[in-house]
Write a sequence for this structure.
């Protein structure tokens, strides 16, 4: 055959090349279950995994005797080969069938094999209301984002080679919702759910019914399903057990992380990764300590001067659009954003544009006489314009931008009376009112500020009437507690040690509490000193085992002894792990929080009676789940231990 010109010949050669490339690509994407599936190391394995005594072990194939060999199958050429088992599939059915679940569900758990292959491009998610209530536009939108997030998360489980797609199994999920209008998370929100999944042989599909009262229950159910879908590197596709029945609900309503973004700025991408990690662990409260003396990165729409003076740079500012983006992102993840504006202490940078005497002791030296770390700074409660011209507008902006409804954090910790006592304008103002310039008088002054600020907060809240969270302090102890703080209004976040006498005082007086006791839940502890040599103030480092064993009810029981009752447990709302960022930023936030915050998640969701050793294998798997999501979770053990469960811990 002759070709008219070189262009025709070139076209034919290119066509043949493209056709061959396409065929090769197609052949690789439809490789049958046994052979060279995408992702399998070396494509010629010499080992497999097997479940022994609820632990997965890596077993060389040549050591498996005929009596213990896993079932055989034909390789397509008339030869019998042992059916291999990947580590993921082993974990799926090993460990009392809970090997991949975190946090462990609190109700009934039934998981049965075999594993059914599913395709990432063949998943249908639909939602309906159980009652006559119809989905609002907001509800429909958030469910659409949830479904997209579920599918996108599954894609992250796949290796770069892709997946085998030589079958047509459909995973169908139907979410049945009792109250579709409940899309704002509250302390009383019902987050429970149930899952009923089965393989329908007639349709060759996997059917899943999810039932929940609220959106948040549905979201948690999908998170559990996501954990039960694993990539099988032997078969080259994702698989799910053919039967799943689970009922589940959290032990505590407040399961949180506290993050400081003032000492070092944290970018939006890092904030979103933190929310991704929270969602993967069913944590639900993101307490955002957004400002402090060090910087004021929040730009209030009515007073942008705060950020102009107080941000580290122009690209380290949270504008209203940024915060709304985070709040909406968090809602899809089942997380509520709780902003904290800490006052009357912990203020400084950003306030330079206001009335000069509004902030006192700013960067006063030697700093250790006026605050706990540099720079110092406290508000002057005696200035009328502080309330009428600044705080009034600031709270209005915060409530609008953060969409605050049920919870707001007013800070209220580490007020140093020495600062106020050395400010002449303040002591003269107090003397004119007959107040003493001692602890009693300065507590009066503190309360004066708190009551005026609370009035403005409630004005900004309108009809919402949020509960106010405060840190433990001198205002939450002794006579000041009962005299100044209404237990119906205030929730106290305990940052001091779990055995602090203030714990018993708060519970005995009927206050609701959140535990953030620093010896177990401050994730900035255990690093080098930054205002001196040696280690930082709260060393040593807190391992995940300590976090896991920090049991709020036990802390309360030890504090109250015989006074502990069933009613006391209802006062304990939960826990929040805190990261203060003196020594953390975008480059380290992931491994400061994760996977230790996962230990907090199981403690607050499941509140198991067992100890950390019983959870270790699942915990290591959850760490890998976080890495799959793109979170740089810290490594805990050599990978050898992960592949040889039970062979590393000391008995």
């Amino acid at each position: 055959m002759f070709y008219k010109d070189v262009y025709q010949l070139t076209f034919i050669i290119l066509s043949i090349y493209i056709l061959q490339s396409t065929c090769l690509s197609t052949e690789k994407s439809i490789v049958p279950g046994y052979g060279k599936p995408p992702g399998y190391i070396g494509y010629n394995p010499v080992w497999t995994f097997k479940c022994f005594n609820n632990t997965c072990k890596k077993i060389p194939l040549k050591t498996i005797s005929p009596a213990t060999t896993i079932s055989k199958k034909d390789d397509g050429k008339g030869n019998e080969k042992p059916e291999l088992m990947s580590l993921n599939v082993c974990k799926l059915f090993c460990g009392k069938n809970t090997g991949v679940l975190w946090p462990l569900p609190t109700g009934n758990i039934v998981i049965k094999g075999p594993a059914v292959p599913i395709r990432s491009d063949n998943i249908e998610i639909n939602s309906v209301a159980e009652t006559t209530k119809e989905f609002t536009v907001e509800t429909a939108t958030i469910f659409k984002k949830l479904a997209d997030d579920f599918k996108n998360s599954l894609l992250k489980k796949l290796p770069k080679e892709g997946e085998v797609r030589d079958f047509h199994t459909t995973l169908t999920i139907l979410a049945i919702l009792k109250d579709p209008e409940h899309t704002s998370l509250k302390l009383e929100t019902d987050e429970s759910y149930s899952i009923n999944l089965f393989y329908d042989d007639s349709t060759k599909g996997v059917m899943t019914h999810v039932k929940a009262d609220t959106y948040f229950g549905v979201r948690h159910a999908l998170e559990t399903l996501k954990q039960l879908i694993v990539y099988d590197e032997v078969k080259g596709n994702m698989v799910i057990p053919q039967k799943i029945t689970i009922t589940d609900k959290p032990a505590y309503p407040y399961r949180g992380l506290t993050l400081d973004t003032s000492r070092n700025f944290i970018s939006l991408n890092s904030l979103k990764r933190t929310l991704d990690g929270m969602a993967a662990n069913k944590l639900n409260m993101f307490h955002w300590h957004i400002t402090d003396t060090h910087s004021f990165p929040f730009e209030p729409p009515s007073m942008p001067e705060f950020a102009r003076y107080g941000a580290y740079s122009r690209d380290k500012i949270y504008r209203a659009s940024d915060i709304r983006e985070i709040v909406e992102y968090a809602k899809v993840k089942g997380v509520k954003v709780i902003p904290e504006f800490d006052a009357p202490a912990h203020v400084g940078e950003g306030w330079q544009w206001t009335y000069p005497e509004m902030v006192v002791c700013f960067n006063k030296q030697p700093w250790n006489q006026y605050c706990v770390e540099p720079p110092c700074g406290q508000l002057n409660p005696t200035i009328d314009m502080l309330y009428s011209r600044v705080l009034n507008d600031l709270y209005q902006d915060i409530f609008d931008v953060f969409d605050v409804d049920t919870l707001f954090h007013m800070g209220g910790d580490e007020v140093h009376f020495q600062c106020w006592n050395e400010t002449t304008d303040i002591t003269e103002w107090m003397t004119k009112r007959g107040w003493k310039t001692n602890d009693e008088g300065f507590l009066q002054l503190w309360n004066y500020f708190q009551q005026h600020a609370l009035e403005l907060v409630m004005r900004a809240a309108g009809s919402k009437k949020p509960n106010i969270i405060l840190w433990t302090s001198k205002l939450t102890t002794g006579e000041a507690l009962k005299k100044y703080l209404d237990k119906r209004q205030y929730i106290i976040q305990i940052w001091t040690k779990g055995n602090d006498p203030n714990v018993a005082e708060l519970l005995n007086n009927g206050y609701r509490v959140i535990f953030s006791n620093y010896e177990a839940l401050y994730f900035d502890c255990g690093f080098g000193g930054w205002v001196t040599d040696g280690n930082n103030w709260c060393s040593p480092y807190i391992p995940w085992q300590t976090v896991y064993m920090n049991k709020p009810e036990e802390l309360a029981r030890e504090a109250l002894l015989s006074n502990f009752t069933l009613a006391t447990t209802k006062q304990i709302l939960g826990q929040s792990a805190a990261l203060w960022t003196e020594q953390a930023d975008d480059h380290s936030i992931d491994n400061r929080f994760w996977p230790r915050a996962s230990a907090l998640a199981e403690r607050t969701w499941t509140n198991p009676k067992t100890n950390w050793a019983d959870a270790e294998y699942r915990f290591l798997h959850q760490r890998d789940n976080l890495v799959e999501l793109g979170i740089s979770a810290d490594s805990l053990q050599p990978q050898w231990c992960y592949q040889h469960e039970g062979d590393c811990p000391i008995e």
